[in-house]
Prior knowledge:
Elements: E1 4-12, E2 16-25, E3 28-38, E4 42-44, E5 47-49, H1 52-68, E6 76-80, E7 86-89, H2 110-117, H3 120-127, H4 136-145, H5 149-153, E8 156-159, H6 160-169, E9 174-175, H7 176-179, H8 194-199, E10 210-211, E11 216-219, H9 222-228, E12 234-236, H10 242-248, E13 258-262, E14 266-272, H11 279-283, E15 287-290, E16 296-302, H12 306-312
Amino acid sequence: MSRTFKMLAFDFGASSGRVILGKLEGKTLEIEEIHRFANEPVRIAGSLHWDVLRLFHEIKQGILKCVGNGYKDLDSMAIDTWGVDFGLLDEKGKLLGNPLHYRDSLTDGMPGEAFEIIPEYEIYKKTGIQIMKFNTAFQLLAMKNAASPQLKAAKTILLTPDLFNYFLTGVKSTEYCIASTTQLLDIESQAWCGDIIAKFGFDKSIFTEIVPPGTVIGRLLPEISRELGCGAIQVVTTASHDTQAAIVAVPALCNDFVYISCGTWSLMGVETDRHVVNDKSNRLNFTNEGGVANKTNFLKNIMGLWLVQECKR
């Protein structure tokens, strides 16, 4: 009888999250929803933040529920989240405040200020990423222009899924798919774009090593394993941008297909072997995000269900 591999997937969207247990025996995959929770931003002192400590608590709750259901011997776990947002760590590895939400007003008008430093098409040509005011590059530039004490004290920047991986393992790294959302990744070399980072005046030393999806990050810290009553679960990078995780799971039997990933944002596009960066794609504001197995996802952001969520709120 073949061994059953048990894997835990944490999927964080911009309004909710879920934890899915996958059990793989031979070629048969069985999935079970273990935990579901809201992801609600918090407005305080005029700024909109992600409640990352609560979200980390929900990760623990997902593991606890697995343990309670008799699954203490999980083989691995992985996390995907929305793109662009990040946490900053100080010299001792402590989180410098709750991360800003990408819909915070801090980046209002920031692309125009950025283009005074680097022309718009130069940014697009180097990164392949569409211009949206909340891209990581513009968030960091807004913090720099505001003389943010957090940015001045920062020794490490970690995008949201990488931040959770760090909380779990103590290991600092940046997964490639999520890195591509920053508008700070060189589309050709797939490394941090030192030219843009330098021209915007960012400290390149705060950026960590970029690793591909499927990389073993490490194992749960001993204190977390003891707290949750589980083993030293192996933590692995998935395609940690939720859009890329959805696209790689499209059950297409050919390479010629169009996808629509529907959530807070709807993303429509195609998976390609190479990026598409030219005058027309720039004018139409299409983006080239890093995918799995060196694929590029050439897509367009559409408003999606955010309108429905705001009406409900």
